[in-house]
Amino acid sequence: MSDEKRSRTLLWILIGGGAFFLFVLAVFTLVYLTLHTGERTSSLSSFGDKIGVVDLEGVIITPKIVVPQLKKFADDDSIKAIVLHVNSPGGGVAASEEIYREVKRIRDEKKKRIVASIESVGASGAYYISSATNKIYADRGSVVGSIGVIAEWVNYGDLLHWAKLKDVTLKAGEFKDTGSPTRDLTPAEKEYLQSLIDDMHTQFIQAVADGRKVKAEDIRAIANGKVWTGGQALGLKLIDQEGDFEAAVKDTAKSVGIKGEPVLVRPERERKTVLDLLFGDVSEWLPTREKLLDQQVGFYYLWK
Which residues form the catalytic set? Predict the structure, then answer.
């Protein structure tokens, strides 16, 4: 191939590559602007009385997303009420407690109406949080309850023994390596861990009793880790009304004096990555702390 032909081929490759890059950039920009225009439109067009909607979904690992969303709606005078849309089996003890405290603060200190609408599941830590609201709604077939604490991990000590491997641990303090997956618990360690779990269970029971404004003894009687359907939970006074999300919104709007169809405001959506925009949601293929939960030693208000 002559130098002239080689130069022309290279030129066409550069032109084609540049055109493709500009096309991809244009598509990305269009999608990005569409997403953000939708967010701004939702915000700017909501001049009337509004209801804030915060989603509590999946395993609760951290309060860092939900709590700021709740605080923002709590401090916004145009938001007349908040609906916590629940679909979660619970999660970490401390994370659930922090969200619970913020919900209770909104209810008792800010005096802003906040309700929970349980979709498929509102169990363990998710129910813990829901109990701090003014009112709990659930579908007849929702899964509700599971007032209990769980701690579990995998013990692979026998595998190490089979492979003729030895775990070497240096420690200062008898209980420093309690829960090591390389050996069985001693009787003293079992007693120690059980005391922690029992204390967390008592905290859970008292928190639900405070949130529901009932006696702790009444909650303790059903705090055995069981779940119930929404219909059963109503009879146990774990929820206040059967109803879906739409029913919860309408009833809440009426209770705060909003006439007509309420305007629903949700927190700003999470920014999409280039991979998400080009290939769809790739999160299911990526490791997350939720997916690694079973490999971590910890204490959880979690229905499994």
Answer: 124, 176
